[in-house]
Amino acid sequence: MITRKRIETVFFHGVFICYIILLMKILFLSRVSIWEIFNSQRTIVRSVNLIPFYSISEFISGSTANLKRFAFANVVGNILLFIPLGVYLPLFKSNKRGTIILLFIFLISLFAEIIQGLLGIGIADIDDIILNTLGGWIGILWFKLLLLLLRDKKRVRTVIAVLAAIVGIPVTYYLLFMIKIKL
Fold first, then answer.
1. Which residues are 124's β-sheet partners?
2. Nearest-CA neighbor of 28 among 111, 105, 115, 109?
3. Per-residue pLDDT tens for 79-135?
């Protein structure tokens, strides 16, 4: 029994580490490579939006079908990107309340947007922070729902490990290696 728990723990942490790597790759290296970030010859274009829901409303009111597809992918992608964080963090921090975990997710998203703005490697957008935090909240709610249904944190951990194996690993593999995100 102890061996099963160790295997599950190693697997669980391994999947979480892969998720964090994917998160960093998408947030920081999707537009420039790591070598370009510190290249002194690189042209830095900074874009910052501090008006809540401005980008989302601009996307929705867009006239072309391509812009609407991009808007949908941007909104849904920002939400989906942080759902796993909302699921995993309650497992790692068992004595923390949902609001503390949600605040932590908000701070991670805020930090990511500040880094994007400072390094000129993306668009620093308040809407991304809102959508990322919403995704984290959805993840926390999923965790709480699983806990309510299964009534045992060990069972929830096992279900999440199985779901990570069935869904998380293939999706992570696809996003890390099949989509050409600059490295």
1. 48
2. 115
3. 999 999 999 999 887 777 889 999 999 999 999 999 998 888 878 899 999 999 999
Classify the phi-psi angles of 120: left when phi > 0, otherwise alpha if psi is within -120 to 50, otherwise beta: left
Tell me, rounded to whole angstroms, the distance of Cα 154 from its chain centroid.
Answer: 24
Tokens of 93: 């921090």
The DSSP secondary structure of 47-75, one letter per residue, reads EEE-STTHHHHHHHT-SSHHHHHHHHHHH
The pLDDT score that the predictor gives to residue 177 is: 67
Q: Which residues of 70-89 are buried (b: 16+ CB within 10 A; e: fewer)?
A: ebeebbeebbbbbbbbbbbb
The residue with tokens 């790692």 is 92
How far is Cα 167 from Cα 157, in angstroms, rounded to an integer?
15
CA angle (142 as vertex; 3, 113 as ends), nearest 5: 100
| Vertex 66: Cα angle to 118 and 25 (nearest 5) | 35
As given in the structure block, the two tokens for residue 165 are 């194996």
pTM to 2 decimal places: 0.85
